[in-house]
Amino acid sequence: MDHGLVKTFRQQVGDRLAEQRRLDAASGRPPLSAEDERQFARAVIAQVLDEYARTEIGNGRTPPNAVEEEALAAGVHAALFGVGRLQPLLEDLDIENIDVNGCDRVFVSYADGREELVEPVAESDEELIELIQILGAYSGLSSRPFDSANPQLDLRLPDGSRLSAVMDVTRRPALSIRRARLGKVFLSDLVGNGTVDPELGSLLRAAVLARKNVMIAGSTNAGKTTLLRALANEIPAHERLITVERALELGLDQFEEIHPNVVAFEERLPNSEGLGSITMAELVRRSLRMNPSRVIVGEVLGDEIVTMLNAMSQGNDGSLSTIHANSSMEVFNRISTYALQAQERLPVEATQMLIAGAIDFVVFIEKRNDYQRGGRLRRFVSSVREVNGVDGRVLSSEVFASGPEGRAVPHSPVSCLDELIYHGYQPSGAWR
Length: 432
What we know:
Distance between the termini: 66 Å
Order of helices and strands: HHHHEEEHEEEHHEHEEHEHEHHEEEEH
Helix content: 25-40%
Radius of gyration: 25 Å
Shape: elongated
Number of helices: 13
């Protein structure tokens, strides 16, 4: 495919779509829906390609044949509504991560742990930056700039994948895409693929139904968000959910048959004058005024932790969230560190008391490239801690610990066992 032609056609089609939007607005017609605009764009693309073919014939050159024209049309449509030359990689269901270190250094990793260097995704680094800028402008709830003044970008792509990009702080622009391979996922799916032991799946489902506050911890790309989605999908359909995220990723509002009443909040970055930002902490506070049954914070990374813990300990039971940590025990220190950085500047002792009153369970999920099993990448829950109280520090017991194969298996009694049994937990015989 001639990617130079794709870029030219994308500009022409984009100009005609913009003109049509202007005419619709001037005449008072309602704007096209997203799907209608996509269909209209296909017609405009066909028109542009037909004009190009006529010009080529008129100049004595051979126009694109049917196969080439179809590829050009798909490329233009992907450039307008998809992710350009990244689109084929996102359509490969076996690819799990895409890492781009400049336009021509593109690495993909597969679900089985393999990594490969693949074809460039742009003709130049400038074109790569332009692609990222387009994605930032049209993905998410508000436009997100990507330039020298805003050299970092995080957003959710239309297919649910998470993109993180940087420029000017590296020699060449770089981006990473983490594929959302399991969007509509349930605990039964994670039990089936070995992420969760069957008995642990029963406990986690009961914890959700019993409105226990659960913090999911793990390293980058361990599967925290997927596990959070699975837990959230056990929440009864009649409950009103409010999700708070830096960049829309959970997508619970996309499955109305599971969660018909969902409001998704997304952090808003400041504009070029440094105004208009809405922080995660502000969104968590706002969510409490929106009549939530539960508040779900996609990922805790900073000062929103104090607001979230206060919410959890003041009657908003059943909350879910994720946090980066290297073990289930480390979560408490990580939360204390975030709280020290927050506006409230809570001392460690106060934070430990807040944690003990807010969090019921910490679930730790890890990933392991098991070379003894052919190098397959495995993800599994390896530890679950129940918070029991505070005595200068958070007291907890590891109720599920790593078993012979790494997955968490029953380890010590659960203090709220009767409540979990009432909500469907089926413990092993040794626990009765």
